[in-house]
Design brief:
The protein is an alpha/beta fold and 286 residues long. The chain has 12 helices and 9 strands. Bound molecules: S-adenosylmethionine and glutamine (GLN). S-adenosylmethionine binds next to helix 7 and strand 4.
Length: 286
Amino acid sequence: MAEQHTIFQALSWASSFLKEYGRDSNAGEILLRAQLNMSRSALLAKLREPLSGTDWNQFEKSVKEHAEGKPVQHITGSEEFFGRTFMVNSDVLIPRPETEELIVALLGKMEKSFEGSFSSLKAADIGTGSGAIAITLKLEKPELSVYATDLSEKALETAKNNAGRLGADIVFLLGDLLQPFVDRGIKLDMVVSNPPYIPEGENLSEVVSGHEPHSALFGGEDGMDFYRRFSQVLPFVLKEQAVAAFEIGNGQGEEVQKIFSAGFPHAKIEVIRDINGKERIVTIVQ
Ligand code: SAM
Ligand code: GLN
């Protein structure tokens, strides 16, 4: 008879196996919980129970895949963002916790600028990927009219599926940065984007560079191509009173602030740090 493993034994094996490969040793618990569809407390209550042979085989396979570099979220097919579950795949960036802070900063600026009254305001998320930002905005502030764009048809497909599952009513537009709004003559009260901002050639972990779309990660030689392009068109797409917020990479704050100052000489432009103390967000309020 094949050897049986308890949940405890399976988790201990995964933890040391993943450590050997330089991966996060907690990934085993995430994978097993997703596989058995169990909360953390349910799993912990069953530590002494045996795993079925099929479950053990499946778990061993998943842990090995992650050790080889496949992101945990590509194995489970999902990621949590702002308290909701988003489906992800290799066509979209896996939403990051830093981006939750972008949303918090944006909502704060909007409350101030529009005094908490958002009805009939038009907001757009540029480069929506999984739809994480646009869908969260719509569900947090249902009065907003929300647009989401991407240059990748496959990303938009994933974002539409997420919006459908989560019940967010959003207008999706395929196109290059702000061009869909220029083409349609739509003026916006609010623009948010987490554009690709990693400098070309930067060394990333295999989990990221081997599995996530490069078109979602790299922003030219210094990583700032997208901010330069935004700064040229954004002034013509925003209304007179408006708010914009961009995610940035650490160390890009001063330069991105300078880039946007050219297009918005009278606006208040701020660099905000994330909870790890890294420059992460630039906001423009005009
Ligand atoms: N908004 C998502 C998030 O925060 O998780 C995804 C952000 S990802 C860093 C950047 C996204 O921008 C990708 O989905 C990519 O396809 C899209 N993108 C890249 N170039 C673009 C362009 N020229 N116009 C519109 N979207 C673009
Ligand atoms: N935060 C992502 C990473 O470090 C990058 C996302 C982006 O380029 N906008 O992998």
